[in-house]
Amino acid sequence: MLKVRNIHTYYGGSHVLHDVSLDLEAGQTVALLGRNGAGKTTTINSIIGFVPPRAGSITFKGATITGAPPYTLAHMGMGLVPQGRRIFSSLTVEENLRLAQRAAGRRNGWSLERIYATFPVLQERAKSGGTQLSGGEQQMLAIARALATGPDVLLLDEPSEGLAPLIVAEVGRMLAALKREGLAMLLVEQHVALAISVADVVYVLNKGQIVFSGAPAILQQNSAMRQQYLGV
Amino acid sequence: MTTEHASSLRPAAVLAAQRGWWRLLPLVALALLPLVAPPFWRSLTLEVLALAIFAMSLDVLIGYTGLVSFGHAAFLGFGAYAAAFTTERVSENLLVVLPICLASVALYAVVVGFLALRTSGISFLMLTLAFSQMLFGLAIRWSRVTGGSDGLSVARPHIGLGAWQVPLGPDLDLYYLVLAAFAASWWLLSRLVASPFGHTLRGIKENAQRMQALGYRTRRFELAAFVVAAVFAGLAGMLLAMHNRYVSPDTFAWTTSGQGIIMVIVGGAGTLVGPILGALLVHLLESVGSSATESWRLIMGVVFVLFVLFAPKGIIGILRRLRRSKESPRA
Predict the structure, then answer these.
(1) Quick count: other Cβ atoms within 10 Å of Cβ B266?
(2) Residue among A69, A91, A145 whose CB faces B199 most closely
């Protein structure tokens, strides 16, 4: 469904991603692990079109999307849960969701009923402003907002970042539920245990290069590699 | 506070009606003002109302879309010159002049917006400034058409619909025309910023990239906001030209754009009501201050600096803070 082939991405003069390739099949959950600064967010930014790669290619549902603008990808069915759960803080929870639904246009996004059934806390907070939400609530809203656009693939950039362990577990249950619904996900994480618990395939990035790809069980057994690249 | 407690016990519908009624009070006061106030104050109020339309329109860009235009005077001036050309060459009927003015401003804004919105931040600011300076230069140099630095005179229009003709002769009629335009602008822009379109603009202000990731072609929405803001600024320009019966290249001056920004910031960006108060304060400072002292610009500069340093959310921000500190001890 999503194929990244040998991409090289730069921020100005600095070469961040070196020859990164990865695959995501329909219904699959792929985790992208690595330390801070390894290039995880850059990989997401390259795919969604924030920072187009200078070399290599990306295809989505068979179409080449290298360098395509983000709104084109959104219309094709790619959803993003950005890092730091950046919701629109000047809008209420419901306004955030409706904003996302309108963006979906003709494609069918999740209805408010379906979102509230999945995330009951958002229904309780429907009229609350974005700034009044707790970190966990903001993360739920960021995920729900992406679902409201009706994506076939969800890119999640560190959904566990800065959350208390109990909330991280809740995010994990949410991801598992989405996986059961058949949603394909690319999960960027530093929280190795969370990623391994939901992923079908794991990639490890180090200094902008893929240094491991395979089943999560293999990574779990290889403590030397975990220590070297992930520090756990 | 006791009145607030009492009213909070009443049904929501009554409360809403009451609130709506309160909002109309300033308009009623403004409608009665020329009947009691001397001509100088009537004229001053008219100017404040027209400038308030200008400031509100700029707030749509600065406060709601996050586009800091330093060339908004271009549209004020464009509307003023369009009024001069139209009353001179086409018709003095307001029902003809108004649509021609607004449509020509919109057309010009599409061109400027299309080019300027290819950039953002400082580049956008400089490009909008450049476009307004271009018109300033054109108004001075192309004197055969624009009257050069002498400017052009503008006829007082009338309202004509077939046999039904209403002249807008005395100042009082024009005052009510401006008041009606102000009230309509306020209502329309309030509806606009509270609409789904307005929410889209706020999203763009917070983070345009993230809006694109949701599927929004953000530049189209920015262009739409830019054109809407320009049309309202053009309306203000047309009204001011009719009031002054005269238009000069100074309307395009960058200082006019700068004053617009000061009105928005001092009043409170992203509130619509704030810029109205900002227009009041700035224009009072200018017209009363300039007759009292040569250094009124200095005073305005100091006021602006004080606001930026101590009340970055403007007059509205101060009012909200006062209300909160009044309520909090009881809450």
Answers:
(1) 27
(2) A91
Q: How far, CA to CA in Å, does B247 sit from each of A95, B20, B56, B238?
A: 44, 37, 22, 9
Name residue, tokens 């991405």.
Answer: A9
The model's pLDDT over A151-188, given as tens digits with 9 standing for 90+, comes to 999 999 999 998 999 999 999 999 999 999 999 999 99
Tell me which residues of chain B have a C-beta less than 8 Å from any C-beta of chain A: 196, 199-200, 202-203, 205-207, 209-218
pLDDT 10s digits, A98-127: 999 998 776 678 999 999 999 999 999 999
Residue A101, chain B, CB below 8 Å: the answer is: no
- Written as six digits, the tokens of A157 are 């950039």
Instruction: Mark out the alpha helices in B37-120 (DSSP H runs).
Output: 39-59, 73-89, 94-116
Contacts of A14 (CB under 8 A, 6+ apart): none
CA distances from A6 to A19, A42, A51, A59 (A): 4, 14, 15, 12
Give the sign of the dihedral formed by CA B283, CA B284, CA B286, CA B291. Answer: positive
Contact (CB<8Å) B215/A105: yes
Q: What ipTM was assigned to the predicted interfaces of this complex? A: 0.90
Residues of chain A numbered 12-71 and touching chain B (CB < 8 Å): 48-50, 69-71
Domain segments of chain B as ranges? 38-252
Which amino acid is residue A12, in one-letter code? Answer: G
* Alpha carbons B82 and B84: distance in angstroms, whole number: 5
